[in-house]
Specification:
Four Helix Bundle (Hemerythrin (Met), subunit A); disordered N terminus
């Protein structure tokens, strides 16, 4: 009988679509992958292939919804690879970095597809500079937003479910390429999440000889950050996929980039400020434990 691994890293932080759609389907694929002796990386590469194909297919009006369907399937596989890694006990820093990189590749192709869809309209034939400039700026903002989304979710999951404060894992041997890709992630942390890094460091000082976070500290962290991590979810892929669907229905691909640059960025700025307040409040209360 198959040993069923939990679908979620931490149920407290999961989104509605993940709970009822992506994770259940991903779990079935992960079980199949385990039976076929597939590795999590192989599922990740399949997700990348479908994501890239789906993103590029957004460029043609005749196949945009087929392309969108491939993006959704790619996201299901993205859920499956993490579940398969947990099932087989082969989760790693490298795998998490690779997973994030695949997301960047997928959305880069999706952004290119949206640009080409915009230019396919005869009225926009001379708008290449405009739309590609929007896409590049949007891509830069997306990189920061998705890194913050991943950072807060990963931190919450590790502390609440594993009672571990996982800072950067220097013990795992990474190739120069993966180290280079991961370096940007730490730059974003230091720039935008320094208060949370301070909160994590404060928790490390409270851990016992086994490195576990005491239950009282973990309960305080969960109480403080549960509402926040759900808000950080709004910077994730589900929001972007829903936005892509909306602009495809309207046949106004340029609106997607304005949404990312203006709406999501304003939301991220507010969340950064609120999170900073929550982190300093947490550190103050932690001192009293």
């Amino acid at each position: 009988m198959e040993q069923k691994t939990p679908l979620y890293k931490a149920l407290d932080m999961e989104e509605f679509l993940d709970i009822w759609f992506y994770h259940p389907l991903g779990f079935r694929i992960a079980l199949l992958g385990k039976r076929l002796a597939l590795s999590a990386d192989q599922v990740t590469y399949a997700s990348m292939f479908l994501g890239i194909a789906g993103g590029l297919m957004l460029s043609r009006a005749s196949v945009i919804w087929w392309g969108y369907a491939l993006l959704i399937i790619s996201s299901v596989l993205d859920s499956a690879d993490g579940q398969l890694a947990r099932m087989t006990g082969k989760s790693s820093e490298r795998g998490r970095i690779l997973d994030g990189m695949i997301g960047y590749f997928t959305f880069t192709c999706a952004y290119l597809g949206l640009c080409l869809l915009y230019l396919s309209n005869p009225e926009h034939a001379h708008g290449a500079v405009f739309i590609f400039s929007l896409a590049i700026i949007s891509g830069m903002f997306t990189a920061v937003q998705s890194s913050l989304y991943d950072f807060y979710r990963t931190s919450f999951s590790s502390i609440v479910t594993k009672a571990k404060v996982e800072m950067h894992n220097e013990s795992e041997k990474l190739s120069w390429f993966f180290k280079f890709c991961y370096s940007g992630y730490h730059v974003y942390q230091k720039m935008f999440a320094s208060s949370h890094l301070a909160a994590m460091a404060a928790m490390v000082s409270k851990t016992g000889p086994d490195g576990r976070v005491p239950d009282s500290v973990r309960a305080l962290y969960r109480k403080t950050n549960k509402p926040m991590v759900r808000m950080w979810n709004l910077l994730g892929d589900n929001t972007r996929f829903l936005a892509i669907a909306a602009v495809l229905i309207l046949y106004r691909p340029e609106l997607y980039f304005f949404f990312i640059i203006i709406v999501v960025s304003l939301l991220a700025a507010v969340l950064i400020m609120v999170q900073r307040y929550k982190d300093y409040k947490f550190i103050t209360e932690l001192r009293g434990l």
